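Reopening: Alpha/beta hydrolase still failing for me.
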Amino acid sequence: MTTTELHYDVRDVRGEGPVLLVVPGGAGHPMGLDPMIDALTDRFTVVTYDPLGLAHGRLGEPVDDQRVEAWSDGAWRVLEEVLPEGESACVLGTSAGGVAVLDLLARYPERLRHVVVHEPPCVGVLPDGDRQQAMFLEVYDTYRAAGPQAAGARMGAGLAEREPVGPLDGQPLTREEELANPMAIFLAHVLRPFTSYVPDVEALSGSSARLTLAAGADSRGQLLHRTAEFLAERTGSSFTELPGGHIGALEHPVAFAQRLVETLVPVAGPPASSTT
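Support: Ran it again with your exact input. Result attached.
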């Protein structure tokens, strides 16, 4: 593995509290998450990982196609830097960040106390996984042909498990425009590798006591709600609903944080040894 610079922020109003690592979705840019993080800092030391450094001065710099394993390796390195000796962390991963967190738990479970994964788009686990992965490839092709707005419309229809309505028209972005737009970076360099990733169900089943799959209450009947429920069943893990939809952390940050705390704390308990 090539060692790269780590980008993350640490926030804790009280100056104490167990570590909660947050791995955002999209291209990993934590934009819009401050209200949720603020609501969590009374209980946790919140460490927000920014895999591509987009919020740390790297927006606009070249980006290659991303690898799930690179994000989870980086998340593990962050935990190695911030965790006190002998302690373990809670983790929240949302959307693409949730895919990375599933890989983190499968490969590096030693110092993870409880992991909540919200609507990960790892649709390959589903009985109709091939068809759903093909849908995300259509989203990518639409982005390349007609830009992010048309791709967003195609993806929105796919997540709702319906066909798009009307033509998907638009203009592709220049390379410079793409690199300045976190959503475009996600569509260009994160969408395909992360939606094609298939979690290690056997490894996750062995860590099922430390894994909760989550979906938005407003996402019922949609693809990623179905994915989270199915993966919870396959791994023997818990399933819960959090407020809002796929971007519930942005839509209802305080309520989302409160429900997240309720989900984490019963499992989190006192700090666990890194050897357990």
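The chain has a mean pLDDT of 93. If you still see a failure, please send the error message rather than a screenshot.
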